[in-house]
Specification:
Distance between the termini: 46 Å
Number of helices: 2
Oligomer: single chain
Length: about 80
């Protein structure tokens, strides 16, 4: 499946990310330009260039925590 640029919102991050890895877009600074339209175009160009240039294997997703029920199984002796 090809990767996609996605909007995400969580407690720790709000912004654009890759659909296939843990890459997140971080703007280089405040948008600059003479008009709002120019600032938007520069932001989108920076975002798209960063997304196209990232390598998914360099941004692996964190391993998922085990299901709490599965964690409990290993704590007890088997009879």
């Amino acid at each position: 499946m090809p990767r996609r640029l996605e909007w995400t919102k969580s407690q720790k991050f709000q912004g654009f990310r890759c659909s296939e890895c843990n890459w997140k877009f971080k703007a280089s600074g405040a948008p600059a330009g003479a008009s709002l339209d120019e600032m938007k175009k520069k932001y989108e160009a920076e975002r798209d260039e960063a997304f196209a240039g990232h390598v998914c294997v360099s941004h692996p997703r964190p391993k998922r925590a085990k299901d709490p029920a599965e964690q409990e199984k290993g704590k007890y002796w088997k009879l």
